[in-house]
Every structure is written in C-alpha cells, then in structure tokens.
Amino acid sequence: MEKKYMVRLSQKERDTLTDVRKRLKGSSQKVRRAEILLKADVQGPNWTDMKIAEAFSCRVQTVDNLRKRLVVEGFEIALNGKARESPPRQKVLDGKQEAQVIAMRLGKPPKGYANWSLRLLAEHVVELGLVESISHETIRQTLKKTV
Question: What InterPro entries does UniProt report for this protein, alphabetically (predicted)?
Fold first, then answer.
C-alpha cells in the first residue's frame, strides 16, 4: 500500500526527535511519537507502517495518524499532541448535594418500591430540585465513592 503522507524531517527536527528519544524528555507518549517519526522518515530508515507498528507495539492506524498529523498540522503538534478542545466536564453535584443523595439512598424508598434504584434516585433528585437533570450513572458514581 502506498503511503499517502510522507514524513520528511529537517535536520533540526531530526535532532529534536533524537534528543527526546535519548534523554527520554517528556511523557512516554512523546518519546514513542519521536521514535515512530524517526523510523518513518523518508531520508532515514523509512520503515513500513507495519514494521513500525510491530516494533513499538501499536496499531498501523496509529502510525498512519501520526504521519498525517505531522504533514497536516505540523511538527510540534505531531510530537506533543493536541490540547483538548473542550475542558473536562465540571462535577454535576457538589459536596452538599452528594450528601443529600446519600442520605436519600439510606432512607426508606418511596411507597410502592422495595428498594431504591439508581434511576429512581435520579428522578427524585430532579424532583427535589437539587439539579435540573442528572443521569443514573452520576448517581452510581456518587454512591460508589462512599462504599
């Protein structure tokens, strides 16, 4: 299969990657990206994607994606990775609300129910106005922390 994105590194880029690899600068992902890019360089070893994937215990698609990122987005992003586009989600419940959910769980279930289910707890939390909406998974994670 012919490669769509060819890795052509300048001497400065090659030196940077070699330095990262030799000194193990940065995260393990960064070192691995550096090694992959060095092996994929047309003016260097020019290994096949299959051989690179085998050598570094990753998928061929990972190597192809890294090649593409280098060509399309540039050297720095290919080496260091992308920053998140959106920050991680904020917590849905604060400490006081979590305490209320736990207290509700420890109390008696509503009439007609033998036990609290996660979905039933989620419905009651919304009915009480603690939050506008909440999933049963958030309730599960909240209760799991206490066990």
Answer: Homeodomain-like_sf
Domain identity same for 26 and 73: yes
Whole-Å CA distances, 119 to 33, 64, 98, 116: 44, 43, 16, 8
**Model-level pTM?**
0.64
Question: What distance in Å separates the CA atoms of residue 91 and residue 93, rounded to the nearest whole number?
Answer: 6
Helix (H, G, I), strand (E, B) or coil at 16: helix
Task: Tell me what the pLDDT averaged over the chain comes to.
Answer: 93
The range of the structural domain enclosing residue 43 comes to 11-80
Q: What is the 3-state secondary structure (H, E, C) of 22-76?
A: HHCCCCHHHHHHHHHHHHHECCCCCCCHHHHHHHCCCCHHHHHHHHHHHHHHCHH
Instruction: Give pLDDT, residue 83.
Output: 85
User: Could you give the CA distance from residue 109 to residue 125 in angstroms, rounded to a whole number?
Assistant: 13
Instruction: Report the distance separating Cα 41 and Cα 34, nearest Å.
Output: 11
Token pair listed for 27:
């995260």
Q: Structurally, how many domains does the chain consist of?
A: 2
User: By the 8 A CB rule, do 136 and 144 touch?
Assistant: no
